[in-house]
Amino acid sequence: MDTTAEPEAGGEPGTGGEPGTGGEPEAFIALDGVEKVFDVRRRKGLLRRERHQVRAVDSLSFTVARGEMVGYIGPNGAGKSTTIKMLTGILTPSGGRLRVAGIDPSRERTRLAHRIGVVFGQRTTLWWDLPLIDSYKLMHRMYRIPDGRYRENLGRLVELLDLGDMLEVPVRQLSLGQRMRGDIAAALLHDPEVLYLDEPTIGLDVVSKTRVREFLRQVNTERSTTVLLTTHDLQDIEQVCSRVMVIDHGRLVYDGGLAGLHEVGESERTLVVDLERECPPVEVPAPARVVRVDGPRQWVAFPASESAAGLVARIAERYPLVDLSVREPDIEAVIAKMYAERAGRTPTQSS
Ligand SMILES: Nc1ncnc2c1ncn2[C@@H]1O[C@H](COP(=O)(O)OP(=O)(O)OP(=O)(O)O)[C@@H](O)[C@H]1O
Hints:
Layout (H helix, E strand, L loop, with lengths): L7 E2 L17 E18 L3 E18 L3 E5 L6 H9 L6 E6 L8 H5 L2 E5 L11 H11 L4 H14 L15 H13 L5 E5 L7 H18 L2 E5 L3 H7 L2 E6 L2 E6 L1 H8 L2 E8 L13 E6 L2 E7 L5 H10 L2 E7 L3 H15 L6
Parallel strand pairs: 1-10, 4-8, 4-9, 6-7, 7-8
Antiparallel strand pairs: 2-3, 2-5, 9-10, 11-13, 11-14, 12-13
The structure holds adenosine-5'-triphosphate.
């Protein structure tokens, strides 16, 4: 796979943002040639161990303006978590320059902690055996949130995330969706300026996913919170982010709008139609086409950058339509097509 490719010129990368006080840079998050190399020891035979290096992040440069909502996606092992860990100060870059709100995260991790919120979908930051409210009380003290602000923020988050009935329940008894809402509230109690979310909708049902996405949009509108969202669910990006960055093998390979990503990857969505009875393949205008027929159900692939509305109207007009749904492409498929497309355009380029 070609890892030497430059980022696609998609939408405008975030370079603006309001200059803050105290000499803050214009870009709220700024990475310049950031690298992270891990030294790994591998067992070779019974006694011998071999050292080798894993370049998890490689010459990564981007900026995010205050108030932007950016999707950060890529295949497994691409370097997303490593980037987030460097942005929070958990990991120190091996090279390059990284700043969040003008702060070097690994040098001033505690100072930065007051300005950022982090949600890991697969792990909780809440105290497992304590009622939810006790975790919030502990965070109130840990972050030294002024009493008035704590009460105001807690009241607002309880209302917006509908946490009222859960506050006295031990965290281990909460459902995944409830726990996730509890975690998101915990990350926002201290009014962070930036929120890092790592797979915040993983394992949630459709209703809970919608609720989380709506909430994120609302927080961004009300507080201009900058959001960096890592996910494998393209709908998270579609419904929350105006910009998406794709990372692969530690390098930025795309930075722009989601529609542009679909165009670059030539990805397709699938319209699944249920007809009243078995019919011959429905006639649809190219490039849409029927890719599968199973009794009265048919699958119609169409470019992800186009709306399904015209296609639906056409099928409904001519066929006995009973039900329909639209399936999104997954991120791995979009990225795989993006590479295939890139390889096709530049056949002489080698990695
Ligand atoms: N502590 C570590 N020591 C050694 N190698 C590591 C370490 N952390 C990550 N890596 C390696 O760095 C690369 C990037 O990992 P990272 O977890 O950042 O990927 P990711 O994009 O978050 O993947 P996923 O979607 O699977 O979570 C992988 O090859 C991984 O094995």
